[in-house]
């Protein structure tokens, strides 16, 4: 299961996973035309007919829950990858700032909604696509209501949150045989990176390499709660702040209820 699979890195992740003939891959997308096109391209490129899509708005918990209710069978791997970086502040219909809703709560709600399905498939893996471009999290202003909305600052906070919540979920899901790791994919030219103003010099396939490695490679099947860059574990400064991590988990939980 790959979220944001119509995007630059997400589609490359889905394609690399589908290249393994024994894998069934589900693209989690919001746009039916793009989803159809990407699915057809991946089936054609890999020869794997077991590629499908589900339409979901990942910025809305109700949409994620509806998909989880439709879902049949287990999930072996969840790659949380979808993200946005609008240059002007936007909110979901529920009134949540859009980057926080999509980039952070979207990951949180997907894990929450599919924990039981992952447990059925255990040992299972969750890969949270984060970034080295992370920091500035303010637990008292997660939606940038008090701070000026600068899309880079909002994005950096969201990617710090992804890395912190990786640690929180890893602790909670370890007893069920589900690992949770975060990574930086690489610097890839995409809608997201262009909105942030940095472009990106790596090919989507390069960007997909670390997430796919975390999703599939035997050497990392026991690793959990870690952060990776270029297929190497890197010390994550945010992982040391357990109190902050638990505060963020509690604050994120409130949005669903
Ligand atoms: N590009 C880089 O250099 C870079 C660097 C570090 C980390 N990352 C991380 O890599 C991940 C992928 O980024 P990318 O560069 O591949 O971005 P991208 O090409 O802009 O793709 C973003 C994807 O997210 C989907 N998405 C956004 N909001 C959604 C929603 N509400 N519901 C469902 N899908 C939604 C988009 O769907 P649509 O196609 O419908 O818009 C698209 O498929 C992100 O987590 C990002 O933080 C990227």
Any idea how many domains?
A: 1
Report low-confidence residues grouped into runs of 5 or more.
Answer: none
Please state the overall shape, judged from the principal axes of the Cα atoms.
globular
- What is the CATH fold-level name? Rossmann fold
- How many DSSP E strands? 8
Strand content: 5-15%
Radius of gyration: 17 Å
Question: What string gives the helices and strands in order?
Answer: EHEHEHEHEHEHHEEH
Spatially, the strands of the biggest sheet line up as: 4-5-6-7-8
Bound molecules: NADP nicotinamide-adenine-dinucleotide phosphate
**C-alpha end-to-end distance:** 25 Å
Largest sheet: 5 strands, mixed
If helices are DSSP runs of H or I spanning 4 or more residues, what is the number of helices? Answer: 8
Task: Produce a short descriptive summary.
By secondary structure, the chain is of the alpha/beta class.
């Amino acid at each position: 299961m790959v979220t944001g699979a119509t995007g630059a890195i997400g589609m490359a992740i889905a394609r690399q996973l589908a290249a393994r003939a024994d894998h069934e891959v589900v693209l989690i997308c919001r746009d039916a035309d793009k989803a159809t096109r990407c699915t057809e391209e991946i089936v054609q490129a890999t020869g794997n007919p077991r590629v499908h899509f589900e339409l979901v708005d990942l910025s809305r918990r109700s949409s994620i829950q509806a998909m989880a209710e439709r879902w049949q069978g287990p999930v072996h791997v969840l790659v949380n990858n979808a993200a946005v970086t609008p240059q002007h502040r936007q909110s979901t219909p529920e009134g949540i700032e859009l980057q926080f809703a999509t980039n952070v709560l979207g990951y949180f709600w997907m894990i929450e909604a599919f924990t039981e399905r992952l447990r059925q498939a255990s040992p299972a893996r969750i890969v949270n696509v984060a970034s080295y471009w992370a920091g500035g999290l303010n637990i008292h202003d997660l939606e940038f209501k008090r701070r000026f909305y600068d899309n880079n600052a909002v994005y950096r906070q969201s990617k710090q949150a992804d890395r912190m919540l990786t640690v929180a979920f890893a602790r909670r899901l370890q007893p069920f045989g589900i690992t949770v790791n975060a990574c930086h994919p690489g610097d890839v030219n995409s809608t997201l990176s262009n909105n942030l103003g940095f472009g990106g010099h790596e090919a989507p396939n390069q960007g997909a390499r670390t997430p796919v490695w975390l999703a599939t490679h035997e050497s990392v099947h026991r690793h959990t709660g870690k952060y990776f860059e270029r297929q190497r574990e890197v010390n994550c400064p945010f992982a040391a702040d357990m109190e902050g991590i638990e505060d963020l988990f509690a604050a994120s939980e409130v949005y669903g209820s």
